[in-house]
Amino acid sequence: MAKFGERLRQAREDKKLTQYQLADLLSVNQITVSTWERGTREPSVDMIRQIAIALECDPNFLFGFD
User: Fold this and answer.
1) Any idea what the Cα angle at residue 1 is, between residues 26 and 6, rounded to 5°?
2) DSSP code for 2
3) Is 39 left (phi over 0), alpha (psi -120 to 50) or beta?
4) Does the pLDDT at position 2 exceed 80?
5) Does residue 1 surpass a pLDDT of 90?
6) What is the mean pLDDT of residues 41-61?
7) What does the alpha-carbon distance between residue 34 and residue 6 come to, in Å, rounded to a whole number?
8) Which region, left, alpha or beta, applies to residue 42 given φ > 0 means left and ψ of -120 to 50 means alpha?
9) Given a cut of 70, is residue 64 above it in pLDDT?
10) I want to staple 1 with a disulfide (CB 3.0 to 4.6 A). Which of 20, 54, 62, 64 is the partner?
11) Mean pLDDT, to the nearest integer, of 23-45?
């Protein structure tokens, strides 16, 4: 099963967004997005919802439950 960070990067790249662009959509720093993708930190539940909305994907996809 793919890790959250790998799925996040995949969903972001599928939308053709850079880390900077996603960070701007979420009102966070690019470094924050980078730490999520590397798996060194995890977003809050509320932020996961915002990520799914921004990337137009199911939150279950991000966790590998698809």
Assistant:
1) 30
2) -
3) left
4) no
5) no
6) 96
7) 11
8) beta
9) yes
10) 64
11) 97
- CA distance linking residue 58 with residue 55, whole number of Å: 9
8 Å CB contact between 45 and 52: no
Neighbouring residues of 7: CB distance < 8 A, sequence distance ≥ 6: 61, 62, 63, 64
The encoded tokens of residue 17 equal 């967004």
pLDDT on residue 43: 96
The answer to whether residues 10 and 4 touch, using CB atoms and an 8 Å cutoff, is no
- Name the residue among 62, 58, 20, 64 with its Cα closest to residue 42: 62
Mean pLDDT of 18-41: 97
Put simply, whether the predicted model's pTM sits higher than 0.85 gets the answer yes
